[in-house]
Design a protein that fits this description.
Blueprint: E1 15-16, E2 19-20, H1 26-43, H2 46-59, E3 66-68, H3 70-76, E4 80-85, H4 95-108, E5 113-118, H5 122-134, E6 137-143, H6 144-149, H7 151-159, E7 163-167, H8 174-187, E8 192-194, H9 205-213, H10 215-228, E9 234-238, H11 243-249, E10 259-267, H12 278-281, E11 283-287, E12 290-294, H13 319-327, E13 330-336, H14 337-351, H15 357-371, E14 378-383, H16 391-405
Helix pairs in contact: 2-4, 4-5, 4-9, 5-7, 9-11, 10-11, 14-15, 14-16
Bound molecules: pyridoxal-5'-phosphate.
Pyridoxal-5'-phosphate is lined by residues 93, 119-120, 122-123, 198, 238-245, 311-312, 356, 358-359, 384-385.
Length: 406
Amino acid sequence: MSNVGLQEKADKRGRFGSFGGRFVPETLMNALLELEAGYREALADHAFQTELRRLLTEYSGRPTPLTLAENLTRSIGGAKIYLKREDLNHTGAHKINNTLGQGLLAKRMGKKKLIAETGAGQHGVASATVAALLGLECRVFMGEEDVRRQRLNVFRMELLGAEVVPVSSGTRTLKDATNEAIRHWVSHVEDTFYLIGSAVGPHPYPEMVKMFQRVIGDEARAQLLEREGRLPDEVIACVGGGSNAIGMFTAFLSDNKVRLTGVEAAGAGVDTDRHAATLTKGSPGVLHGSLSYLLQNEHGQVLPAHSISAGLDYPGVGPEHAYLKESGRVRYTTATDQEALVAVQTLCQQEGILPALESAHAIAEALKLAANRSHQDVVLVCLSGRGDKDVESIRQGLEGLHDESD
Ligand SMILES: Cc1ncc(COP(=O)(O)O)c(C=O)c1O
């Protein structure tokens, strides 16, 4: 495994290796060029950086803590497990890091309206929150299936003053919500900022979202060095579109000895047709404006994804992950619905922490890896969000598990 020559930024065409780019209708090209220029100016603007840092600290509660999962470590009897607590952010997940960044950028660019897509609802809630804070209008597109699964988050968005638009096409999940958001953006580009919730979409979104999320890894790296005086042996994060994972991994990309593992949703199993394991089972193609891996059939038709976790239930993935997979720097693996449910139960019962179903996929992998490592080793896991939003899905899932074992 080597990162010699690893490209950490998109090139001029917005490519990470052969992945990424801009595959959009002509009508969006100017909007993307305007966004890229606005983003680069903001990055170089001291006042923008200061305001973003202020909000991340005073409003969201950063730095989030690093928690040593002592009971879990003891019961597994292998490596020490540390959790990077993005669940303790305001609104309950890492999504707020990116929405604060893009929200401030929208305001700086003079846009009055935000649109967003959401799966689990965490990005929708974070977008609605930032819109309320910054005095912007907010409309959130959400698949009908996710509206059903994430009722609590729909109510939260409405309470925050956002309009939630249920999407009834396709599998009525995140892919379809994203299609609808792009369709809306095409006809409202003048006054509307599209606040994408993951490291996906056309250039410059994947690079921009990573920049707003890299605070996760930068903080965790410094915190771990202070606590342990060393870097971790393994870093693990779940991968939906890939924003919490890229935010965590970026800080460690050039530390060759640190193994990086992304965990996709295997749903009912990667050998069934009910999973969301895009990098594991997919192939290169274009979805939502960029070239990356996706789940598709032999005719290039996008296949439906499945996961118990609404935030991982997406047939695409950010282009930088496709690049990191092909370069061999990051290992991508999977956890099933069942393994995620067991991980939720384990973390609740042993540490008193209720993780989001998304994050539970990373925990499931950590439980396996830590068991096979020595006491001297350190495993760092991104706990991307809290599980309050998922309690109903978890209850039903656990009932199903118990029924199966009866
Ligand atoms: C808590 C949590 N973790 C992870 C994800 C997956 O997104 P990403 O891969 O962009 O981090 C989501 C998406 O909704 C989420 O809510």
